[in-house]
Amino acid sequence: MTIRGRLTYWYAGVLLASIVLMAAVLYFELVIERRMVKEAQQPPDRVEHEIAEILLFYGVPTVLLTVLGGRRLLTRALAPLNDLATAAERLHVQNLREPLPRTGNGDEVDRLSEVLNATNRRLEESFNRIREFTLHASHELKTPLAVLHGEVETLLNDPAASPDQRESFASQLDEIQRLTKIVEALALLAKADAGQLALKSESVRLDELVKDSFADAQILASPKRISVSLAGCDEVTVRGDRHRLRQLLLNLMDNAIKYNQEGGEVVLSLRRIGQEAELNLANTGPGIPPQLIGRVFDRFFRGDESRGNDRESCGLGLSIAQSIARAHQGAIEIASIPGARTAVTVRLPAAEGELEGVAKI
């Protein structure tokens, strides 16, 4: 039965009960009681007194029955809607298969749950098609790109090539390499979305990776005279894939240097906080406007103010970093003060069985 039907029957029942109760009270007050008073030869009650009794014995119960009963009925009728809203809030692109609860009684909420579940299934199918297309397209593009790379590299090394031709071939080779990186990044993201990203599970000294990335960052930052410093580096071991964690660090370092100002600075630190490893990376630069901070992890997103117009950037670095962090049961956050500073924080669970930041092997 629908909610509207239940409410209609409820208030129809209340109205009928009220009419019956009113008839009973009126009959008692105006017929039976007057007859009893007449037989007892007592003076009849005043009309005001009888009206007060009718209101007391009829009006009050009717109001209580209508209000309390209606409230209880509405609470029970709307409880599935509250459960549905709670379940819908937990939905995201990774768990669209989780069905929303249904009442099973065919009411409006049950029909809404059925419609939303069908919509989620269609959305999941669409996302799967996009992932499969991206994965297959990136796979198919690797071979022709490798062929082009080899041919252009051969032309570049040809002794008969003129300086102008060499310059043109070098430019083409750079673009092919850039396109290859984009294809590889898209393949990685598609695998991560589909849950097909193969990760090793091993003990990784995160502090060692941070120190290696710090050394690499100093080399990358020197042409722009950017100062790179390591504020602190606790010994922390995590479970995960060393290659992917290194990729995460390099992506963040590359962003911190690329979107920085001439003569700026980058500050890196690693701390063990409770059962988590917290990596902080802050850099000077243009910062990110508040209206764009929520989109920095979107793929191919490049805000003019916050991300510059560097032709080497394709807007996938932070998306990859986020996917790697999530694949390691971690999280990544960004806070920024426009025109001053941008800070990235990565939190990863520390390895179990670790003592004072050093894993027992």
How does this structure look, described?
This protein has eight helices and nine strands. With 361 residues, it is an alpha+beta fold. It has a five-stranded mixed sheet, with helices on one face. It has a two-stranded antiparallel sheet with strand order 1-3. It has a two-stranded antiparallel ribbon with strand order 8-9. A hairpin with a 2-residue loop joins β8 (354-355) and β9 (358-359).
* Largest beta sheet: strand ordering: 2-4-5-7-6
Q: How much strand content do the residues show?
A: 5-15%
Could you give the distance between the termini? 63 Å
Tally of alpha and pi helices: 8
Please tell me how large the radius of gyration is. 36 Å
Mean pLDDT: 79
Estimate the helix proportion, in percent.
55-70%
Describe the main β-sheet briefly: 5 strands, mixed
- H/E order of the elements? HHHHEHEEHEEHHEEEE
Low-confidence runs: 305-311, 354-361
Large-scale geometry: elongated
The secondary-structure class comes to alpha+beta
Let me know the number of strands. Answer: 9
What descriptive keywords fit this protein?
361 residues, 8 helices, two-stranded antiparallel ribbon, alpha+beta, disordered C terminus
